[in-house]
Amino acid sequence: MAFYVDGFVLPVPRDKVDDYKKLARMAGKIWLQYGALEYHECLADDVQPGKVTSFPQAVKLKPDEVVVFSWIVYKSRRQRDKINAQVMKDPRLAGMDPKSLPFDGKRMFWGGFKPIVSMTAE
Fold first, then answer.
1. 1 has pLDDT over 80
2. Domain ranges in the chain?
3. So what CATH class is 4-113?
């Protein structure tokens, strides 16, 4: 089965994790409603700074923050582009003020990925 993945990494203040979870649950429902196959949000548990780069360094993590790693799975890039266009117009997300988000979007990074190896346990 062919598929396409969007990946996201961002810093979330520890005291805003519950707010972020609430936003993520809503966002996940919206992406799935428009056709995404999977939606995942993960809180860093064993993520250490590296010597050259790492998740904490990539988002310029502050002492009172934690890294979130997220991904969304789609049937194809074409489907992803269509779904994301619909999501961005959805009034549940479109009207959000970036200043009210429970994270610093300027330190978030993301991208689309074509799978090259995909395996699951039998």
1. no
2. 4-113
3. alpha beta
How far apart (Å, rounded) are the C-alpha atoms in residues 30 and 38?
11
Q: Report the amino acid identity of residue 11.
A: P
Whether residue 73 contacts residue 36, with contact meaning beta carbons closer than 8 Å, is answered with yes
3-state helix, strand, coil in the chain (%, to 5): 40, 25, 35
Residue 12 bridge partners (DSSP): 66
List Cβ neighbours of 78 (8 Å cut-off, separation of 6 or more). none
Nearest to 36 by CA among 7, 76, 66, 93: 76
Look up residue 13 and give its two tokens. Answer: 């203040």
Residue 45, SS3 per DSSP: coil
The pTM score is: 0.92
Query: What was the pLDDT predicted at 43?
Result: 97
* Alpha carbon distance 116, 122 (integer Å): 19
Beta bridge partners of 39: 72
